[in-house]
């Protein structure tokens, strides 16, 4: 099975902008989410966008006054972000999420991990390691915001087939297979090539993380956690690190 990085770079990244409805629409949605949940800095502050992709949240964060470290494993998506930066204070970095500390110039006031990025980590110890590094890196009174899909309750039968997007030339559908620790996501892409349809299939694993486990893990690291409903059926956790 491909790694998450291989799956995105070779299978999803070439159609990712199409998958989310286009750059303008995606950034508009990202701006609405950022405006709703992210603290607005009174003066420029450093922030980190974990799993930045093409900048759906990176650009909105820069728009409200953050200097953003945008980290992602996809060169394709970061290339798209680079073309959109303009004069915004954004530093794209191609690296693993777990290496974000190596690229910090100052303690960030805000770290976000939005979309369903967190479930891409390989195992629960990796999630805990990320939480440790976030807690150690944040500036005083810093904020950590994470969203994720709660896969702890398995879908069954035909519910495991999930339509993602389609138009006259592309159809993207997911099929889900569950084990105790993860769900294997099979992304089935049909694309029209002239008069012919061609099928491309790839799969990768996502962690099954419950909201309760996530909250307990963050609170154990002295975060004060607020749980709420996120966009597109996701769970959102807004966490503030308590003073020692």
How much is the average pLDDT?
Answer: 95
Largest sheet: 7 strands, mixed
The level of helicity is 25-40%
Number of domains: 2
**C-alpha Rg (nearest Å):** 18 Å
Write out key terms for the chains shown.
single chain; 244 residues; alpha/beta; N-terminal domain of TfIIb; 4-stranded antiparallel beta sheet
Word description of this protein:
This protein is of the alpha/beta class and 244 residues long. The protein folds into two domains: 4-150 and 209-241, 3-Layer(aba) Sandwich (Rossmann fold), CATH 3.40.50; 157-207, N-terminal domain of TfIIb. Helices cover 28% and strands 33% of the residues. The protein is built from seven helices and eleven strands. The protein has helices spanning 4-12, 16-19, 23-37, 58-63, 75-84, 124-137, 211-220, and strands at residues 45-50, 66-72, 90-94, 110-113, 143-148, 161-166, 170-178, 182-193, 196-207, 223-229, 235-241. A seven-stranded mixed β-sheet has the order 3-2-1-4-5-11-10, with helices on both faces. The longest helix has 15 residues, at 23-37. It starts with a helix and ends with a strand.
Helices, strands, pairings?
Elements: H1 4-12, H2 16-19, H3 23-37, E1 45-50, H4 58-63, E2 66-72, H5 75-84, E3 90-94, E4 110-113, H6 124-137, E5 143-148, E6 161-166, E7 170-178, E8 182-193, E9 196-207, H7 211-220, E10 223-229, E11 235-241
Parallel strand pairs: 1-2, 1-4, 2-3, 4-5
Antiparallel strand pairs: 5-11, 6-7, 7-8, 8-9, 10-11
């Amino acid at each position: 099975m491909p790694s998450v990085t291989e799956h995105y770079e070779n299978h999803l990244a070439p159609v990712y902008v199409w998958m989310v409805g286009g750059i303008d629409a995606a950034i508009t949605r990202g701006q609405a989410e950022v405006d709703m949940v992210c603290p607005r800095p009174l003066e420029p502050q450093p922030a980190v966008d974990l799993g930045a992709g093409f900048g759906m949240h990176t650009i909105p964060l820069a728009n409200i006054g953050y200097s953003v470290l945008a980290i992602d494993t996809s060169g394709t998506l970061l290339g798209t972000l680079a073309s959109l930066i303009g004069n915004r204070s954004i530093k794209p970095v191609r690296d693993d999420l777990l290496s974000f500390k190596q690229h910090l110039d100052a303690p960030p006031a805000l770290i976000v991990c939005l979309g369903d990025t967190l479930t891409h980590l390989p195992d629960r110890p990796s999630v805990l390691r990320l939480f440790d590094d976030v807690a150690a890196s944040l500036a005083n009174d810093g904020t950590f915001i994470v969203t994720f899909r709660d896969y702890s309750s398995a879908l069954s039968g035909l519910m495991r087939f999930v339509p993602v997007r389609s138009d006259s030339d592309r159809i993207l559908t997911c099929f889900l297979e569950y084990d105790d620790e993860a769900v294997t996501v099979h992304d089935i892409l049909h694309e029209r090539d002239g008069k012919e349809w061609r099928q491309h299939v790839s799969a990768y694993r996502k962690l099954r993380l419950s909201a309760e486990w996530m909250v307990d893990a963050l609170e154990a690291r002295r975060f004060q956690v607020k749980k709420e409903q996120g966009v597109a059926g996701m769970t959102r956790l807004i966490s503030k690190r308590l003073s020692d």
